[in-house]
Amino acid sequence: MRYIFFLIIVFFAGSEYFVYSQTVTIQVDVSAGRKPISPFIFGKNNCLSDDPSKPLSSVEWQFLRDAGVKMLRENGGNNATKYNWRLKLASHPDWYNNVYPHDWDFAAKSMQDNLSGTFGIWAFQLIGKVASNTSNNFNDYKYNQSKWWSGVNQNLAGGGVINSGGGSKAATDGNPNLYLKDWPADSTVGILDKWFGNNGLGLQKTPLTYWSMDNEPEIWSGTHDDIMANQLSAEAFMQSYFSVAKKARAKFPEIKLMGPVPANEWQWYKWGTNTLSINGTNYSWLEFFIKRIADEQKANGIRLLDVLDIHFYPSTNASADIVQLHRVFFDKTYVFPEATGVKTLNGGWDNSINKEYIFERCREWLTKYLGTDHGVTLSVSEIGIGGSNPNVTAVWYASTLGTFANEGVEIFTPWSWKIGMWETLHLFSRYSKSIHVQSTSSSEDFISAYSSVNTNLDSLTVVLVNRSLDQNKSTTINISNFTVPDGSYQTIMLSNLPGNETFQSHAVNALKTGNIQVTMGVLSVPLAPLSITALLLTSTLQPTKIKEPIEGNFSFEVVLNPYSNIANISYQLERVLPVKLEVFDLQGKLIQLLKQEIQQPGKYSLQFNQVNMTTGTYIYRLKAGSHEVVKKTIVLK
User: In terms of C-beta density within 10 A (0-12 exposed, 13-18 middle, 19 or more buried), how is residue 298 classed?
Assistant: First the structure.
């Protein structure tokens, strides 16, 4: 393989003289490892208002647009488990089980009206009970002006008696029948009719494709002990899961079901404190879940899982450990200091098992039980880290975003949000390209490169992350199959972030811009400790030694039924591609975003009701990978 070398002289505003340790070599191959980067790794929990009396301001909406948020998980985590979408009420297990208003309808519609191209995640309820009224709440304001204390987990809604000594156990538990009601599977999936049905709210399906299958069920006896003093069995949960999943799939065939949403590292392997067994063979919880999904799919032919979703809350506050946490998911060599559950992988306790690589294990289990073409992707829908150094936070987040882009993770929505994360999200979502390409480092523990190209293969972004807490690093970058002419190119860097939030908008933030001058064929970039540096490179030449992948039998048809105004849309993909399907009028105004996601090879079909469209000609545009096809329809009224 031939490598092209570039010499770069770097000018950073306000830079100072550094003493560098040994040079780290980065290899970037634009022809290797190419895969779409999911826009949904640029996500967050709890951004929207679900209170119609307190809508987000135009400034707040613009902030989210500028930051580049593409996925919003808005179901409230534990508060979703007993949500009643009919009455718009949720029981809060972490706050006395009190019942409070939450309007998911308002949040979903406001997202669609204000954040075009952004998707949302809401949730189904599988526990069987939901909130019914606000009349039986514990008066926490009268007790202590609604301040947090150790007793907030006491079961006081429904007439409980407080234990003033604190802790999670009330003197007398409240009666859950006073504030909850039964909620079978038909009720939980009924929200799909309300949102998308003929007499419903008319919300667009595509931005609301992803649905969590409840939240952290393996610890319900702790979080929802008002109705589950004793943990239900794993098999009982699976039966509830199957019932809801089948009904949801019948109502919304294109739905993306996310499960099992376990709470943390221990719960990736254990159901409560139990090892799971089938016919004398021990299974960790995630392997058991995947196997049971496979068994039921084979028995009924109904797809029951689209995104394998987990939560992660490491306890460390040590900076040296935090900057390595991205390695927990895929790195088979990384010894994770907090590994506990993985030691029970085989049913007993084995201290020699200390390498986590949980997503790599899940990929192996998915292939084992569902086959090589299973199409299930990966997600972390909650995460929270310790520490208070914004630069450590930024470097951890950058490393995780880069790793998830490299490995094809579909969704990443952190729960806890710290200073440094808005800046990092903005840098990655704004300047990364849509297709991952391979990068390797001679010192991967401390220096990584995350590289991406656009579909035209003429623009390359290389994001360099220095995880060293105190050492400047010098890097030499070798790029193959991409030719950069001599000239000046832009750099963007995050480093030395202060203790206060610096991100305000796309124009006002902590990014430091500079220029690199490419001459004479060698590229060398200095990296400050705990820094993130993006190199924005372009090529005016044809890529060397690379051919654009052929899409195969790429087809796209739109057929209109003139009697019903239903547009029947079909297309076929021959390989994994990012797909975007839109409807425009002749003036180029977007009428509706019908689909935006990474899709597996296969044939796809959907319908779009044009009943609300006025007489005229409309354009259907399908973008799939590097291809773009348009079709016209005529609406007559």
Answer: exposed
